[in-house]
Design brief:
Elements: H1 5-21, H2 24-40, H3 42-49, H4 55-65, H5 71-82, H6 89-103, E1 106-113, H7 119-132, E2 137-144, E3 151-156, E4 159-164, H8 165-177
Parallel strand pairs: 1-2
Antiparallel strand pairs: 1-3, 3-4
Family: Belongs to the ATPase delta chain family.
InterPro entries: ATP_synth_OSCP/delta_N_sf, ATPase_OSCP/d_CS, ATPase_OSCP/dsu
Membrane topology: Peripheral membrane protein
Length: about 180
């Protein structure tokens, strides 16, 4: 996802509102559900972005599709439609998730490995690497990457901890070849 300034601003405003209403977890869950809907049926996002329908009709569609969502989520989607920035909805959800995790002392982490990690392994990685970046816990997304040969690479924000066999072989190659 791109680092959109617009998405950050909308996410920040939505986060402040959710904090005041004490609905951060609910709004975050609704936004993640919105991401799933848009990813599984990209036609909806295309429909909301097309000029064929009036802005009012697009708002009605959003109200119908997300009728069970928190009203703040529906309102921000309708605002994005008004401003012709509905394409920023996925970025907004991503930015909101980061803000919510940060507020709860969590941080998002991507762990690259050659196989699916067990829950115990995820917990151990979360504990040990969380301490390195000053967080209580990490929300881990496991990405399978067979080219690593073995070991793990952990990415937390701008930090990358690479303890893979592929990386060690590359370092050895640079040392030997020069």
């Amino acid at each position: 996802m791109s680092q959109s300034t617009v998405a950050k601003r909308y996410a920040g405003a939505l986060f402040q509102l959710a904090l005041e209403q004490k609905t951060v977890a609910e709004v975050n869950a609704d936004l993640q559900e919105l991401v799933k809907v848009f990813e599984t049926t990209p036609e909806i996002l295309s429909l909301l972005a097309t000029p064929k329908f009036s802005i009012q009709r697009k708002k009605e569609i959003v109200a119908e599709i997300f009728s069970n969502a928190n009203p703040a989520v529906v309102n921000v989607l309708q605002l994005l439609i008004d401003k012709k920035r509905v394409n920023e909805a996925l970025n907004l959800a991503s930015e909101f998730e980061k803000l919510a995790a940060e507020a709860q002392g969590f941080s998002a982490a991507t762990v690259f490995s050659t196989r699916e990690l067990t829950e115990q392994e995820k917990e151990e990685i979360s504990t040990s690497f969380g301490k390195l970046v000053g967080k209580e816990k990490l929300n881990i997304t496991n990405v399978i990457e067979p080219s690593l040969l073995g070991g793990v690479r952990v990415q937390i924000g701008n930090y990358i901890f690479d303890n893979t066999i592929a990386n060690k072989l590359e370092n050895l190659k640079r040392t030997l070849v020069g």
